[in-house]
Amino acid sequence: MRLSCQQEDLHRGLSAVSRAIPARSTLPITQHVLVEAAEGAITLSATDAETIAITYRIQADIDEAGSITMPSRLLADFVATLPHQPISMTLAERSRQVSLACARNTASIGGMDPDDFPPIPSVSSSEEIRIDASRLRAAIMQTVFAAATDDSRPVLTGVHFHFKPGELRLAAADGFRLSVHTMPLAAEIDRTAIVPARALGELGRLLQEVGTGDVVITFNPTGTQVQFDVGHARLIANLIQGTFPNYEQLIPSNYTTRTEVNVSDFVRETRIASIFARDGSGIVRVIGSPGEGSDPGSLHSTARAEEVGDNEGVLDAVVEGAESKIAFNGRYLSDVLNVIDTDRVAIETSSPSSPGVLRPVGDDRFIHVVMPMFVQW
Predict the structure, then answer these.
(1) Which CATH superfamily includes the segment(s) 251-370?
(2) Which of 5, 22, 246, 289 is the most exposed place for a label (fewest CB within 10 A)?
(3) Burial of 195 (0-12, 13-18, 19+ CB in 10 A)
Protein backbone atom coordinates (compact mmCIF):
# COMPACT_ATOMS: atom_id res chain seq x y z
CA MET A 1 0.00 0.00 0.00
CA ARG A 2 1.33 3.42 -0.97
CA LEU A 3 -0.71 6.63 -0.91
CA SER A 4 -0.81 10.34 -0.20
CA CYS A 5 -3.63 12.47 1.25
CA GLN A 6 -4.18 15.84 2.88
CA GLN A 7 -3.64 16.12 6.65
CA GLU A 8 -6.94 17.99 7.14
CA ASP A 9 -8.93 15.26 5.37
CA LEU A 10 -7.31 12.41 7.27
CA HIS A 11 -7.69 14.22 10.60
CA ARG A 12 -11.39 14.86 9.94
CA GLY A 13 -12.00 11.24 8.95
CA LEU A 14 -10.16 9.78 11.92
CA SER A 15 -12.01 12.08 14.31
CA ALA A 16 -15.33 10.88 12.89
CA VAL A 17 -14.75 7.13 12.93
CA SER A 18 -12.84 6.98 16.22
CA ARG A 19 -16.04 7.82 18.09
CA ALA A 20 -17.33 4.33 17.24
CA ILE A 21 -14.44 2.75 19.13
CA PRO A 22 -15.43 1.35 22.55
CA ALA A 23 -13.81 2.64 25.73
CA ARG A 24 -13.21 -0.95 26.83
CA SER A 25 -13.28 -4.15 24.81
CA THR A 26 -12.14 -7.74 25.01
CA LEU A 27 -11.24 -7.57 21.30
CA PRO A 28 -7.99 -5.58 20.91
CA ILE A 29 -8.60 -5.04 17.20
CA THR A 30 -11.69 -2.94 17.92
CA GLN A 31 -9.28 -0.31 19.25
CA HIS A 32 -7.97 -0.06 15.68
CA VAL A 33 -9.10 1.80 12.58
CA LEU A 34 -9.31 -0.12 9.33
CA VAL A 35 -7.61 1.78 6.49
CA GLU A 36 -8.48 0.65 2.96
CA ALA A 37 -6.91 2.37 -0.05
CA ALA A 38 -8.38 1.85 -3.53
CA GLU A 39 -9.80 3.74 -6.51
CA GLY A 40 -8.61 7.22 -5.59
CA ALA A 41 -9.87 7.21 -2.02
CA ILE A 42 -9.18 6.00 1.51
CA THR A 43 -12.01 4.37 3.42
CA LEU A 44 -11.64 4.55 7.20
CA SER A 45 -13.76 2.19 9.31
CA ALA A 46 -14.26 1.67 13.04
CA THR A 47 -16.71 -0.37 15.09
CA ASP A 48 -17.37 -1.55 18.61
CA ALA A 49 -18.47 -4.92 17.13
CA GLU A 50 -21.75 -4.66 19.04
CA THR A 51 -23.78 -1.51 18.50
CA ILE A 52 -22.29 0.91 16.00
CA ALA A 53 -19.98 1.11 12.97
CA ILE A 54 -18.84 4.21 11.08
CA THR A 55 -17.11 4.40 7.70
CA TYR A 56 -15.65 7.61 6.26
CA ARG A 57 -14.29 8.15 2.76
CA ILE A 58 -11.66 10.78 1.86
CA GLN A 59 -9.93 11.58 -1.41
CA ALA A 60 -6.34 10.43 -1.85
CA ASP A 61 -3.67 9.72 -4.46
CA ILE A 62 -3.35 5.91 -4.46
CA ASP A 63 -0.13 4.61 -5.98
CA GLU A 64 -0.66 1.09 -4.66
CA ALA A 65 -3.91 -0.25 -3.20
CA GLY A 66 -3.95 -2.11 0.10
CA SER A 67 -5.38 -2.28 3.60
CA ILE A 68 -4.21 -2.40 7.21
CA THR A 69 -5.52 -1.67 10.68
CA MET A 70 -3.75 0.79 12.96
CA PRO A 71 -4.25 1.80 16.63
CA SER A 72 -6.91 4.50 16.55
CA ARG A 73 -5.75 6.71 19.39
CA LEU A 74 -2.08 6.70 18.41
CA LEU A 75 -2.83 7.38 14.75
CA ALA A 76 -5.43 10.09 15.43
CA ASP A 77 -3.27 11.91 17.97
CA PHE A 78 -0.25 11.83 15.65
CA VAL A 79 -2.16 13.09 12.61
CA ALA A 80 -3.86 15.84 14.65
CA THR A 81 -0.51 17.40 15.55
CA LEU A 82 0.89 17.42 12.01
CA PRO A 83 1.01 20.56 9.82
CA HIS A 84 -1.60 21.08 7.10
CA GLN A 85 0.47 19.38 4.41
CA PRO A 86 0.24 16.11 2.45
CA ILE A 87 0.77 12.89 4.40
CA SER A 88 2.25 9.84 2.74
CA MET A 89 1.68 6.27 3.94
CA THR A 90 3.67 3.27 2.89
CA LEU A 91 3.12 -0.37 3.79
CA ALA A 92 5.59 -2.91 2.41
CA GLU A 93 4.21 -6.18 1.09
CA ARG A 94 3.69 -8.83 3.79
CA SER A 95 4.50 -6.22 6.45
CA ARG A 96 2.41 -4.86 9.30
CA GLN A 97 4.49 -1.71 9.88
CA VAL A 98 3.17 1.47 8.28
CA SER A 99 5.56 4.34 7.53
CA LEU A 100 4.07 7.84 7.63
CA ALA A 101 5.67 11.11 6.58
CA CYS A 102 4.46 14.71 6.62
CA ALA A 103 6.76 17.69 6.10
CA ARG A 104 9.75 16.89 8.36
CA ASN A 105 7.85 14.46 10.58
CA THR A 106 8.07 10.71 10.17
CA ALA A 107 6.64 7.80 12.13
CA SER A 108 6.30 4.06 12.01
CA ILE A 109 3.12 2.47 13.38
CA GLY A 110 2.50 -1.23 13.79
CA GLY A 111 -0.82 -2.56 12.56
CA MET A 112 -2.80 -5.79 12.55
CA ASP A 113 -4.15 -8.09 9.86
CA PRO A 114 -7.17 -6.41 8.22
CA ASP A 115 -8.77 -9.84 7.72
CA ASP A 116 -9.21 -10.03 11.51
CA PHE A 117 -11.15 -6.77 11.65
CA PRO A 118 -14.84 -7.24 12.54
CA PRO A 119 -16.87 -7.05 9.32
CA ILE A 120 -18.73 -3.80 8.72
CA PRO A 121 -22.38 -4.68 7.96
CA SER A 122 -23.78 -3.78 4.57
CA VAL A 123 -27.39 -2.71 5.01
CA SER A 124 -29.36 -2.90 1.79
CA SER A 125 -33.05 -2.75 1.00
CA SER A 126 -35.32 -1.84 -1.86
CA GLU A 127 -36.84 0.82 0.38
CA GLU A 128 -34.77 3.98 0.96
CA ILE A 129 -35.95 6.97 2.98
CA ARG A 130 -34.52 10.38 2.12
CA ILE A 131 -34.57 13.17 4.71
CA ASP A 132 -33.06 16.64 4.62
CA ALA A 133 -29.85 16.50 6.68
CA SER A 134 -30.39 19.77 8.55
CA ARG A 135 -33.94 18.79 9.52
CA LEU A 136 -32.88 15.39 10.79
CA ARG A 137 -30.03 16.92 12.79
CA ALA A 138 -32.43 19.39 14.43
CA ALA A 139 -34.76 16.53 15.36
CA ILE A 140 -31.89 14.51 16.83
CA MET A 141 -30.54 17.43 18.86
CA GLN A 142 -33.97 18.07 20.37
CA THR A 143 -34.55 14.46 21.45
CA VAL A 144 -31.34 12.50 22.01
CA PHE A 145 -30.41 14.33 25.23
CA ALA A 146 -33.56 13.00 26.94
CA ALA A 147 -32.70 9.32 26.42
CA ALA A 148 -31.69 7.26 29.46
CA THR A 149 -28.00 6.66 30.12
CA ASP A 150 -28.35 3.51 32.25
CA ASP A 151 -29.32 0.06 30.99
CA SER A 152 -32.02 -0.74 33.55
CA ARG A 153 -34.60 -0.29 30.77
CA PRO A 154 -32.74 -0.79 27.47
CA VAL A 155 -35.54 0.62 25.27
CA LEU A 156 -35.16 3.98 27.00
CA THR A 157 -31.49 4.22 25.97
CA GLY A 158 -32.67 4.77 22.40
CA VAL A 159 -34.73 7.24 20.40
CA HIS A 160 -38.04 6.00 19.04
CA PHE A 161 -38.51 6.61 15.30
CA HIS A 162 -42.11 6.47 14.08
CA PHE A 163 -42.44 6.78 10.32
CA LYS A 164 -45.94 7.54 9.12
CA PRO A 165 -47.15 8.63 5.69
CA GLY A 166 -46.01 12.24 5.39
CA GLU A 167 -44.49 12.43 8.88
CA LEU A 168 -41.59 11.27 11.07
CA ARG A 169 -41.76 11.55 14.83
CA LEU A 170 -38.75 11.12 17.12
CA ALA A 171 -39.24 10.60 20.85
CA ALA A 172 -36.90 9.99 23.77
CA ALA A 173 -37.61 9.54 27.48
CA ASP A 174 -35.67 8.51 30.58
CA GLY A 175 -38.55 8.24 33.06
CA PHE A 176 -38.19 11.85 34.23
CA ARG A 177 -38.57 13.77 30.98
CA LEU A 178 -39.86 13.29 27.45
CA SER A 179 -38.82 15.01 24.21
CA VAL A 180 -40.84 14.70 21.01
CA HIS A 181 -39.99 16.21 17.62
CA THR A 182 -42.28 15.89 14.60
CA MET A 183 -41.11 16.63 11.07
CA PRO A 184 -42.63 16.33 7.58
CA LEU A 185 -41.64 13.32 5.49
CA ALA A 186 -42.05 12.88 1.75
CA ALA A 187 -42.09 9.08 1.91
CA GLU A 188 -45.27 7.04 2.31
CA ILE A 189 -44.02 4.57 4.89
CA ASP A 190 -45.24 3.06 8.13
CA ARG A 191 -42.50 1.74 10.42
CA THR A 192 -41.19 2.06 13.97
CA ALA A 193 -37.66 1.52 15.27
CA ILE A 194 -35.60 2.29 18.37
CA VAL A 195 -32.16 3.65 17.43
CA PRO A 196 -29.45 3.76 20.14
CA ALA A 197 -28.98 7.30 21.44
CA ARG A 198 -25.22 6.89 21.26
CA ALA A 199 -25.41 6.19 17.53
CA LEU A 200 -27.62 9.22 16.94
CA GLY A 201 -25.25 11.44 18.90
CA GLU A 202 -22.47 10.49 16.48
CA LEU A 203 -24.81 10.87 13.51
CA GLY A 204 -25.59 14.41 14.64
CA ARG A 205 -21.88 15.25 14.45
CA LEU A 206 -21.62 13.78 10.94
CA LEU A 207 -24.67 15.74 9.82
CA GLN A 208 -23.06 18.95 11.07
CA GLU A 209 -20.41 18.47 8.38
CA VAL A 210 -22.97 17.87 5.64
CA GLY A 211 -24.93 21.10 5.96
CA THR A 212 -27.28 20.87 2.99
CA GLY A 213 -28.17 17.61 1.29
CA ASP A 214 -30.07 14.46 2.07
CA VAL A 215 -29.53 11.55 4.42
CA VAL A 216 -30.51 8.16 3.05
CA ILE A 217 -31.95 5.85 5.72
CA THR A 218 -32.09 2.12 5.05
CA PHE A 219 -33.31 -0.73 7.26
CA ASN A 220 -32.23 -4.32 6.70
CA PRO A 221 -34.97 -6.82 5.81
CA THR A 222 -35.02 -8.37 9.30
CA GLY A 223 -35.44 -4.99 11.03
CA THR A 224 -32.37 -5.38 13.23
CA GLN A 225 -30.07 -2.76 11.69
CA VAL A 226 -30.32 0.73 10.24
CA GLN A 227 -27.91 2.62 8.03
CA PHE A 228 -27.61 6.39 7.69
CA ASP A 229 -25.74 7.33 4.50
CA VAL A 230 -24.60 10.95 4.13
CA GLY A 231 -22.50 10.36 1.02
CA HIS A 232 -18.91 10.45 2.22
CA ALA A 233 -19.77 8.68 5.48
CA ARG A 234 -22.05 5.88 6.63
CA LEU A 235 -23.22 5.02 10.14
CA ILE A 236 -24.67 1.56 10.82
CA ALA A 237 -26.38 0.78 14.14
CA ASN A 238 -28.01 -2.27 15.65
CA LEU A 239 -31.58 -1.42 16.58
CA ILE A 240 -32.81 -1.88 20.14
CA GLN A 241 -35.43 -4.60 20.30
CA GLY A 242 -38.44 -4.06 22.55
CA THR A 243 -41.58 -1.98 22.93
CA PHE A 244 -41.21 1.74 23.53
CA PRO A 245 -43.64 3.20 26.11
CA ASN A 246 -46.83 4.83 24.88
CA TYR A 247 -45.53 8.34 25.41
CA GLU A 248 -48.57 10.07 23.93
CA GLN A 249 -50.47 9.52 27.17
CA LEU A 250 -47.68 11.26 29.13
CA ILE A 251 -48.28 14.61 27.38
CA PRO A 252 -50.79 16.69 29.40
CA SER A 253 -53.81 17.67 27.33
CA ASN A 254 -54.54 20.90 29.23
CA TYR A 255 -53.04 23.41 31.65
CA THR A 256 -54.11 26.10 34.10
CA THR A 257 -51.19 28.50 33.62
CA ARG A 258 -49.15 29.40 30.56
CA THR A 259 -45.99 31.44 31.09
CA GLU A 260 -44.17 32.84 28.06
CA VAL A 261 -40.61 34.11 28.50
CA ASN A 262 -37.49 34.97 26.50
CA VAL A 263 -35.33 31.85 26.02
CA SER A 264 -31.86 33.40 26.33
CA ASP A 265 -32.86 35.27 29.51
CA PHE A 266 -34.35 32.09 30.99
CA VAL A 267 -31.18 30.15 30.13
CA ARG A 268 -29.09 32.74 32.00
CA GLU A 269 -31.33 32.72 35.08
CA THR A 270 -31.43 28.92 35.13
CA ARG A 271 -27.65 28.78 34.95
CA ILE A 272 -27.35 31.19 37.88
CA ALA A 273 -29.93 29.30 39.94
CA SER A 274 -28.16 26.00 39.22
CA ILE A 275 -25.05 27.28 40.97
CA PHE A 276 -27.01 27.43 44.23
CA ALA A 277 -29.03 24.31 43.36
CA ARG A 278 -25.87 22.18 43.34
CA ASP A 279 -26.06 21.98 47.13
CA GLY A 280 -29.83 21.65 47.14
CA SER A 281 -30.49 18.43 45.16
CA GLY A 282 -30.41 20.41 41.92
CA ILE A 283 -33.81 21.95 42.60
CA VAL A 284 -34.80 25.15 40.79
CA ARG A 285 -38.17 26.63 41.77
CA VAL A 286 -40.10 28.43 39.04
CA ILE A 287 -43.00 30.76 39.86
CA GLY A 288 -45.14 32.43 37.21
CA SER A 289 -47.06 35.49 38.43
CA PRO A 290 -49.61 37.26 36.23
CA GLY A 291 -49.43 41.04 36.00
CA GLU A 292 -51.97 43.45 37.44
CA GLY A 293 -53.44 46.15 35.25
CA SER A 294 -50.80 47.45 32.86
CA ASP A 295 -47.93 45.74 34.72
CA PRO A 296 -46.34 42.78 32.92
CA GLY A 297 -46.32 39.36 34.45
CA SER A 298 -43.11 37.88 35.85
CA LEU A 299 -41.27 34.61 36.16
CA HIS A 300 -39.22 34.02 39.32
CA SER A 301 -36.51 31.37 39.42
CA THR A 302 -35.08 30.54 42.84
CA ALA A 303 -32.67 28.05 44.35
CA ARG A 304 -31.38 27.39 47.85
CA ALA A 305 -28.13 26.02 49.17
CA GLU A 306 -28.90 24.87 52.69
CA GLU A 307 -26.96 26.77 55.37
CA VAL A 308 -25.11 28.66 52.62
CA GLY A 309 -27.43 30.99 50.75
CA ASP A 310 -30.10 31.36 48.12
CA ASN A 311 -30.77 33.09 44.83
CA GLU A 312 -33.72 34.66 43.04
CA GLY A 313 -33.96 35.92 39.48
CA VAL A 314 -36.93 37.78 37.98
CA LEU A 315 -37.86 38.01 34.30
CA ASP A 316 -40.66 39.81 32.51
CA ALA A 317 -43.16 37.25 31.24
CA VAL A 318 -46.58 36.91 29.68
CA VAL A 319 -48.60 34.85 32.16
CA GLU A 320 -52.04 33.51 31.31
CA GLY A 321 -54.06 32.02 34.15
CA ALA A 322 -53.46 31.87 37.89
CA GLU A 323 -50.10 32.06 39.66
CA SER A 324 -48.14 28.82 39.19
CA LYS A 325 -45.47 27.15 41.27
CA ILE A 326 -43.38 24.22 40.13
CA ALA A 327 -39.87 22.89 40.84
CA PHE A 328 -37.59 21.34 38.23
CA ASN A 329 -34.23 19.64 38.17
CA GLY A 330 -31.94 22.48 37.09
CA ARG A 331 -29.93 20.33 34.69
CA TYR A 332 -33.05 19.03 32.99
CA LEU A 333 -34.30 22.58 32.56
CA SER A 334 -30.99 23.75 31.09
CA ASP A 335 -30.83 20.76 28.73
CA VAL A 336 -34.14 21.55 27.06
CA LEU A 337 -33.66 25.33 26.95
CA ASN A 338 -30.33 24.84 25.16
CA VAL A 339 -31.97 23.01 22.24
CA ILE A 340 -34.88 25.41 21.72
CA ASP A 341 -34.19 27.43 18.57
CA THR A 342 -36.87 30.12 18.92
CA ASP A 343 -36.66 33.42 20.81
CA ARG A 344 -39.40 32.59 23.29
CA VAL A 345 -40.65 29.52 25.13
CA ALA A 346 -43.98 28.76 26.78
CA ILE A 347 -44.17 26.83 30.04
CA GLU A 348 -47.51 25.12 30.64
CA THR A 349 -48.32 23.96 34.18
CA SER A 350 -51.32 22.64 36.10
CA SER A 351 -50.05 22.14 39.66
CA PRO A 352 -46.77 21.73 41.58
CA SER A 353 -47.18 17.95 41.39
CA SER A 354 -48.11 17.68 37.68
CA PRO A 355 -45.66 17.51 34.75
CA GLY A 356 -44.59 20.77 33.17
CA VAL A 357 -44.63 21.22 29.39
CA LEU A 358 -42.23 23.43 27.43
CA ARG A 359 -43.04 24.49 23.88
CA PRO A 360 -41.08 26.84 21.58
CA VAL A 361 -43.34 29.78 20.73
CA GLY A 362 -44.13 29.76 17.02
CA ASP A 363 -42.81 26.22 16.44
CA ASP A 364 -45.19 23.34 17.00
CA ARG A 365 -42.70 20.66 15.92
CA PHE A 366 -41.17 20.25 19.38
CA ILE A 367 -42.64 19.51 22.78
CA HIS A 368 -40.85 18.65 26.02
CA VAL A 369 -42.42 17.21 29.17
CA VAL A 370 -40.52 17.21 32.46
CA MET A 371 -41.59 15.74 35.77
CA PRO A 372 -41.65 18.11 38.74
CA MET A 373 -39.59 17.75 41.90
CA PHE A 374 -41.53 17.69 45.15
CA VAL A 375 -40.56 20.50 47.53
CA GLN A 376 -41.96 22.42 50.47
CA TRP A 377 -43.23 25.81 49.32
Answers:
(1) DNA Polymerase III, subunit A, domain 2 (3.10.150.10)
(2) 246
(3) buried
